[in-house]
Request: fold
Amino acid sequence: MCGIIGYIGKNKAVPYLIRGLEHLEYRGYDSSGIAVSQGGEVITVKASGRISDLKSKLAGIELTAKCGIGHTRWATHGEPDDINSHPHSSMSGLFTVVHNGIIENYLPLKKELLGQGFTFKSSTDTEVIANLLEKYYEGDVLSALSKCRRVLEGSYALCIICRDFPDTLYGVRKGSPLHCALKRTESFFASDTVALLPYTREIFTLGEGETAVMKKGKITFYGSDGAETEKKAERVNLPEQTADKGDFPHFMLKEIYEQPQVLRKTLSALVRDGELLPELSELKKSFFALQKICFVGCGSAYHAGLAGKILMERIGNITCVAETASEFRYGNTPLDGKTLCIFISQSGETADTLAALMKAKEKKAKTLSVINVRGSTMAGESDNVIYTEAGTEIAVATTKAYTAQLMALYLFALCFAHERWQIKRSERDRLLSQLSQLPEKVQSIIDRRDRAELFSSLFDRRQEGWFIGRGSDYASAMEGSLKMKEISYINTGAYPAGELKHGTISLLERGTPVVALCCEERLFPKTFANIKEVKARGARVLILAQKKSSQALTDEENVFLLPDTEDEFAGLLQAVALQLISYFTALKRGCDIDKPKNLAKSVTVE
Ligand code: G6P
Reply:
């Protein structure tokens, strides 16, 4: 989703801004732009489309400025065209702004400003901020900013240039992340630490309502009350994202291949000397008193939560709910001190998941987040954090971060069930040993990518398809269907296999591809009967099952056999097979696999 970069230093700003935008590209965007302070003016160049389009526009312009801001925009208010792209300037050009987030009361504010004679060029909420700053400005930018903040409702990370102070950048945030960094005589703003890592690992993260005033090699911080504050940089120990696909044609395929290693790393980080999740020692003390667990996330992270809920209910013997964050945040799920809310998020910045976390904290529920990005807002806000070790994920459609989330949730369920005396130590160890075999089993699926490629022919010429399963297979069906929709634009649906006959089956046409997930052995005969029902009506069925079920499938035409594991853990193996099938389907359809249209990697608006 939207990304911000700012640079002020001894060198020309434009190459730094472009490099920063390229690092933010993976988040998903549909236009980009930059603005620099040069010769007493602010020069803005923006373009819809890719950063390469912006570069083409910049090619003929001599920009020597050493201070500037840049933005990648994922359209919310107004089409993704040149005019609506950021940066946006105030009516007279005094203020130029890039913005992540949404100003919820921008319409009444715009109406008021129009009535006061201000003019607007774009349909964005951001232009309101630029004009508000101009309205409140009386020579002191910080004072104008503070007045502006008092009237803005919604979320924002802002990076601002004021024409009167060409050697200064201003940054402020509420609800959307913003980071700063220093490297000798150079200073940087970025909405994502990934864009700062090429320069330093010492990162300053702005807190809610905080402001940063940035000059060459110097940053001054102000608290939400306007008083100057001291801020310490935190060390971010992430490898620099080189945006290098190596020999892989797409980041998605590269990330699929990284999964065995990611799972091993996640396991060894979360299990130390035979102890599961040692960093949760405080939370573990509350396990006996808990009465309910809520799993909350968006997109694939929600599906991981659903899989977590199914396993936890089975071995932890506790009431669980799984909900999408956008419903949970406005819903009425009873929450109290005896509820544990588990928030799952790769980025740790997803706006709905963050809001759900804040709600749980307000209701005094215990909070635990399963996060991939260290230093993210959710990691800072949660009482407890489990980090997955997926490293930076570039492809918009998640693969390795999802399976790492599953691994973390499986481990948490084992830990909980054992600590609460629902399973014996010997059973815990047996299950743990099964988990430790998953990385090599994932590798064996990757090694059979030609099978996945073959089965993708079921989908590549179709406009619709179904994914069905029961129990934990249903959670896998949800994720398989989402992956297919995200990257290949085929309208797929996921259904509990037993529900088909209550409506959905009327949609079935000859040749409709149906992926049947059959790894729950105890439910195998039930799902198998549903397979027969859809086949009888012309469906082309692909069955994903464990090797141990192969006898029962000898007459079936399309079977992808997965290595045997605990039925409850098979979702992780299914995910890898389904990722590969979606990947090859999208490849055959000529889709933009790493950057699917309309999608963003990190969804920082509601
Ligand atoms: C976006 C991505 C999904 C992801 C979801 C949640 O919609 O396209 O792949 O699952 O956000 O993201 P999170 O960072 O919270 O896991």
